[in-house]
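We examine the record.
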Amino acid sequence: AEDAQGEDALGAAAAACAANGDRVVRPPSMAGQYGSFGGATLERSGLDLQQRSQEREMKTDDTGGGGGAGKIINNGGGGDGDDDDDDEWFDEEDDGEGDDDGFFRRRGVLPELFDRATVECVLQEWFRNVSQLPTGVRMAVEMGLISSAQLVRFMTMNTRPTVARQVSRLLPSEPARAFVGRMMGDAGFVYKLAIEQAITIGAALKFEAAARGDKLGKEWDLAATNIATLVAGNAAVVWALSPNRTFGSPAQFKWQRILHSLPNHIFDASGPNRQYTTATRALGFVNKGVQLAAAGAVIGAVSAAASSLCVARRKAADAAFEPSVPVPDFNTSVGANALFLGVSGNVRYQMLAGADRWIYGNLATLQLSMVSTGVLRFLNNRVGEPTRQAFLGVKAPAEAAAAAAYDDDDDDF
């Protein structure tokens, strides 16, 4: 019994030493020589400083529910054993939260935020503070007159080495302020101006080539004068009717402040300090019509003078020279261009400005908005060009050819 108890105690001691990382050395049994009790020698193992690496194989999700009861998962119950992954975002059923129409989808109108906290967040994103802004913009921010979207447009143009920033710095102070104000009022101002100029030049070149035919090379100066006239008139209309967010503009007289408070087009958005009513919008429409009529009169006068000079130079070299496209006289050129810009151009581009505001405020993608406004501006040019020709008394190439053929037939008869 005592031997059994000794063996049990020795086994317990050996188990404890093994748990502590010690090595147990058992000598052979010495019961005959040293009595009934055996002996054990404890030897502590040396320190192992080797670093062992353990390879683990990544286990992929088998997407199965497993059918468990959810006792181990803390945040959910067991699966139902289906083969569909709960994390899949595609090929889901319509849950009624919204419709995606692809490229032609629409979105809600994004509001303009004028609160100071949002404006400060925009400045922090650009690593700027209010004191680093230009005087006019700083005053507008402090008075709460500028929205976060307008400030983003300004910072995009003013802090990056873009063509728009270079142009604004090369212009004098007043034109530069007006240019920056239009960039803040409409982020697509430069794009719209460029597409308008491209459409105008293309249509003018087509008309001149069809009207002058083989004489286009000889009458290039007259064709260039007509094209320059159209380009200047188009730029005047686009500039005058673009939304403007100019701040800090000097106004010495009361009538200047009144004109500055009018919208550039009848569909312009109101703001904290720009509450447009029906009366102010109507007055703004009349004001823009008068401004464009004056610009058209000036452009028409310059065009008539330049065309007359070209014709006189040609006749000095050849007395029998006659331009293939008749040159309007001075009074006709002035009146027709004034009427074309002040009435036709004002009405058409006012409607186009309202369409642009709806397009950029409701269509979800910028590409769709740009394509839509480009198509509308092309159609607008197709409507305006016959009106200009009618005002000037110039017939289109097809009409001129038909009239000439009719005259020949009449003479033959």
Notes: The chain has a mean pLDDT of 75. DSSP finds 14 helices and two strands in the chain. The first strand starts at residue 23 and ends at 25.
